[in-house]
Design brief:
With 73 residues, the chain is mainly alpha-helical. The chain has helices spanning 5-25, 37-40, 56-72, and strands spanning 34-35, 49-50.
Amino acid sequence: MVLSPQERMQAAEEAVRQLRESLAGVGVLFPSLDVERVSAAGTYGLPLVDLGRCNLDTALRLAAVLHERAAGS
């Protein structure tokens, strides 16, 4: 199945929305989380999700959440 450029962008935006919600649910915020626009302009595959830059506090929070999750599995 080949997606149109609009469908590709909608799929990427939905993935970003879900990721943002999931991260927020565990107290992690990536302010620059977004669709990587250059990859969205291409015609091969789906656009990339850019996690963006984060400060030290955000990186440590994410590490703590991942560590807790791994320990609880």
